[in-house]
Specification:
The chain has a single domain, classed as archaeoglobus fulgidus dsm 4304 fold (2-Layer Sandwich), CATH 3.30.2170.10. It contains 4 helices and 7 strands, in the order βββαβαβββαα. Strands 3-2-1-4-5-7-6 form a 7-stranded mixed beta sheet, with helices on both faces. α1 crosses α2.
Length: 171
């Protein structure tokens, strides 16, 4: 099995910062590599069009990482209900020149999301919402449940979030 990635984006006033945490094994507590990308003037958030803001940032950091990943974890949903369009994960899957499994690990419920499985990790009563393309959601759930970390959010996903935020200190 090749490498997988957990990716996240952070926005500040006039720019975006994306982080890609590369890992080799789902139980890893540390990344193999961390890659960051940033750019000016993120697109404004539009309800129902989240992908228009987030997708260019994710593509940029994945290109900078220079790998064809087996699996990519995103902070969000893969699928939306019929009539609501596609979720960020589906857009990412269709935008890449190779075919990884894309797994959405969403922290908050979304009424227009579809085909997700709520799970609980650690002692948290608050679920994570797991969705996937390129895999069945149940397969993605099994991997997310085995990821390192005693808390709700797996360690590598927390690192991706922290690294995107830490990117604000980059020039």
């Amino acid at each position: 099995m090749g490498h997988s990635a957990a990716i996240d984006v952070y926005y500040e006033d006039s720019r975006w910062i994306a982080a890609c945490v590369v890992f080799a094994d789902w139980q890893d507590s540390r990344p193999v590599e961390v890659v960051r990308a940033s750019g000016p003037d993120p697109r404004p958030y539009k309800a129902g069009r989240f992908y228009q803001r987030e997708l260019p940032c994710l593509i940029s950091v994945l290109e900078r990482a220079g790998h064809e990943f087996d699996t990519i974890l995103i902070d969000g949903y893969v699928h939306l209900k019929t009539g609501a369009g596609k979720g960020l994960g589906a857009w990412l899957f269709e935008s890449l020149p190779y075919s990884p499994a894309v797994v959405g690990v969403a922290k908050n419920p979304l009424k227009i999301a579809d085909r997700f499985v709520p799970i609980q990790r650690g002692r948290s009563k608050k679920p994570l919402f797991i969705s996937a393309i390129g895999w069945q959601a149940d397969q993605a759930v099994q991997y997310i449940l085995t990821m390192h970390g005693p808390y709700r959010i797996p360690t590598l996903i927390k690192i991706a979030d922290r690294q995107a935020r830490a990117g604000t200190r980059l020039s």
